[in-house]
Amino acid sequence: MASENQENVKGLKSAWSWAKGYFEKIVNVVICAAKDAKKLGEEDPRRVIHSFKVGLAITLVSLFYYFDFLYEGFGVAAMWAVITVVVVFEFSVGATFGKGMNRGIATLLGGALGVAAHRLASFTGENAESIILGLSVFWISALATFLRFFPKLKARYDYGLLIFILTFSLISVSGYRDDEVLEMAHKRLSTVLIGGSAAVLICIFICPIWAGEDLHNLTATNIEKLAVFLEGFGREYFETNKGNKASLDGYKSVLKVKGNEEVLVNSAKWEPGHGRFRYRHPWGQYLKVGRSIRECAYKIDALNGYLNSEMQTPMEIRSKVQESCTKMSSECSCALRELAKGLKTMTRAMSAEPHIRNAKTAAKNLKSSLQTSLWPDTDLLDIIPAAAVASLIVDIVSCTIKIADSVHELACLSKFKNPAAVIANQTGQGRVAVASDIKGSLNLNVVVE
Amino acid sequence: MASENQENVKGLKSAWSWAKGYFEKIVNVVICAAKDAKKLGEEDPRRVIHSFKVGLAITLVSLFYYFDFLYEGFGVAAMWAVITVVVVFEFSVGATFGKGMNRGIATLLGGALGVAAHRLASFTGENAESIILGLSVFWISALATFLRFFPKLKARYDYGLLIFILTFSLISVSGYRDDEVLEMAHKRLSTVLIGGSAAVLICIFICPIWAGEDLHNLTATNIEKLAVFLEGFGREYFETNKGNKASLDGYKSVLKVKGNEEVLVNSAKWEPGHGRFRYRHPWGQYLKVGRSIRECAYKIDALNGYLNSEMQTPMEIRSKVQESCTKMSSECSCALRELAKGLKTMTRAMSAEPHIRNAKTAAKNLKSSLQTSLWPDTDLLDIIPAAAVASLIVDIVSCTIKIADSVHELACLSKFKNPAAVIANQTGQGRVAVASDIKGSLNLNVVVE
User: Which UniProt keywords apply (chains A, B) (predicted)?
Assistant: First the structure.
């Protein structure tokens, strides 16, 4: 009896510890999730705002159900307004607008074609009607599905094609049962339009999140990240008392943004003019700027590899290239900072030009310091890493010029303010000659390789 | 009168030429679109098959409307089956299955919660009911929208969360008007399940397109593309009679596939066992293999830059590194080919090991040929490009080893056949020693830098 009691106690204890462990696990998971949520919210507080905006939009549209005078007009079709809000509401205004337009136009076209198919089919007998309807649904949905593979259509109208198939099938097929097909199509279209406009309006008027603005800031920040690396590089590579290397790793995020950038460009193209950006701002050019930034970031990544490599060139060899390398890297850094500043303030970054010219001069000086006569009795294997670093920095000068070119092109396309012109007007001195010289230097390539 | 006639004729002529020009433009656009369509279809004939499959699925599900005995059960709710097919049917089985599961489970959960909210609210008075329902819709949709920002949830359950919000709002809000809320939720769930299973069944049983198989083949093809470049590189760089450089540009497509790969992995994770792949094949490992392939492709891209550079090292300098470079590049090419072959046949690529070992030996030989004493009276500027090429090829050897390591890991995880073990069993000689030596060499890094 005592042993049985003991067994019971033991069993209870193990059950208790099991339950306790399980409970602790759940609590842990919840705590982790809460921490993640806090981090997500702190990283970008607009996420929290966006969530509340979605909740608000859905609640507002569901008012159709609560008020009799609203409900009477649409009846059950009011659910399409709710569905549209849920499906169309995206993070940025551009994405929401794009999806809304896609859904609206596709519903219009699909509905019209569905009504037409139903009318055509209803002239025949009942058996033939179902066959004609079935065949038209088959062919039109197959065709529209194939259209979704066209890259250009996929980029901007993928969702519209989907909704086109959906509406066409629903309207033409339901028409077989319900003769009020025109009214059905009309109700569906108007509820979709109501839902879509509710989503777009709330998206624009309550703390709007513009994809274009995000894209613009992302580009400027990325250029700045490269500048931060190049600023610190000389100190890290050529001086023995090393600082904190990890502080230079900021550029790494630049290598990952490609897909994000394309999504932002596609969204931004839908956006109306806002803030400093007019409608039809040259968003496509940002992809080109992004490509040149990434090219530079890959070179910087290679450079970072030498920074962290265990096999180092002796200091006395490094010091031979130190002056020109440090010069190039710091001048590139300054030029990039000026470009980023110009982007942020939307002015032409004329002040980047002198830095680029200095970097080019330093590259030419490097050439003369690389004559063998200056390196007697040195093991080639010791020289190679230093030479590779120097050659990478020369490449980075070319990359910086490419970035400057593409930013310059962007400035021309979107008509940034021209500080030089302002000054020329103020002082009355023609600065055209200087400006054309600068333009010429932009298109020049570095000849040292 | 005559001049009026002439004017009329002139007007008619210009109208005619305008109409003709316009018509020709339209014809041109149609011809271009038809050519694009033909190209898309020839590139991957499965696109055409997929389009017909979608048409078939939608037509089949719309049968609900045509046959009375089917229509009676569901009535207007049958449209949810059509909607589900249109929205869920994706190119690959995995993506379709994932979306179908997401939609099914989210409809179940959202519907259950919606019914519960409606029941709870109906205990109160009518005014309080609408307020409670509105508040619950607001909070739950805001919460679920915020959950969509969690990266892990976004990757696999984004669509499910959307459908959850949708179903919950629809069921709880419609319940305010229609007391048959349980029946409504039940009908919606069963039609969604019917539509989802129709999509999945047609996707699996008519010419299935497996995301996993695509991913596997893509990986093997990418490795082969790198091998093709390295095979041709020695010939192109060290011999004066140059062949067709463009034939070496195949590797460039490897640099672009990253986003595509992640989509394929996420889809493949949903797929049941198929063909040579069991359920829970280690799909995640393909991302690691892909990363190492891309790393190698970037080095190859840099190498390609030197191939096309106008500033070339004199041939007599290049010839000093020719032997070891050609050796390294061709051995890496052979190793990569063996790895690709192993992947394709799903056997462990033991035969890649000797090639990697040869490449390492060549890398060590290169080290001794880079002593300054062998290069008297040479301009360092002439040596640097050749040295950079040599150093890049050494990097490519390390990259090849990384690819071999990750493929090897994949082979272990997915239990590829082991040809060495088969031979050992056949000949009766233990080959364990060799195998362990190979494994050791895989984890060794090249020491030449």
Answer: Ion channel, Ion transport, Membrane, Transmembrane, Transmembrane helix, Transport
